[in-house]
Design goal:
Length: 202
């Protein structure tokens, strides 16, 4: 079984929608009382930016299809808020979020410089609005190609192997396991006359 080009693009769009839907629903509920909680919101925002980049790439492929392009033209209000920030989204994704200057990459501009130059919105409300725009886009595309969309999902489900669970460690046992590792590391450090620590900070 093989996916057509359109089906492949629908599947890519679906995966973006699934991730963004969860973030859209849960993000406003995240607490912001502590610095750790605020940082977690920033981490989720970074994941949203990755999905913005993915959306831009998928849309570019989708609109090569004349039938989809007709629908896309009626969705300008949905894709324009994201597309107009394509440059900073791409730069933030490539240089700081996904790759973190790996290999031969070098820091050319800081995050703030990228944001300031392009006036990319940093308020959580603006980012959440952009997520909502993509969700509307996805649902309209799905609604206008419902039969093909459903067939794509069916094909994917058939081709996708059953989810299997690997590993044995339960969440309740993580702290105990990390404490064991921490003690072993502390012993190694002392034996090698290196700076050690007395307690685990997790």
């Amino acid at each position: 079984m093989k996916l057509s080009k359109r089906e492949s693009n629908f599947l890519r769009l679906l995966l973006i929608r699934i991730k963004l839907r969860v973030m859209y629903d849960q993000f406003p509920k995240l607490p912001i009382g502590t610095s750790s909680e605020r940082l977690f919101r920033a981490v989720i925002r970074e994941n949203m930016i990755v999905q913005f980049y993915n959306f831009i790439k998928v849309r570019n492929d989708l609109i090569k299809d004349p039938k989809i392009k007709v629908v896309d033209e009626s969705l300008k209000q949905c894709w324009e808020p994201i597309i107009k920030f394509q440059e900073p989204i791409t730069q933030l994704r490539h240089q700081y979020i996904a790759h973190i200057q790996e290999g031969d990459r070098r820091f050319k501009r800081t995050v703030n410089e990228i944001i300031d130059e392009c006036q990319f919105p940093t308020r959580f409300g603006e980012i959440l609005f952009m997520v909502g725009c993509i969700l509307i886009y996805c649902d309209v595309i799905r609604g206008n190609f419902e039969t093909e969309w459903k067939n794509t999902v069916k094909k994917h489900d058939v081709m996708n192997p059953k989810f299997l669970t690997y590993g044995t460690l339960r969440i309740d046992d993580v702290s105990m396991k990390l404490k064991q590792i921490s003690d072993e590391v502390a012993t190694n450090l002392r034996q090698n006359k290196l700076r050690s620590f007395t307690s685990i900070n997790i």
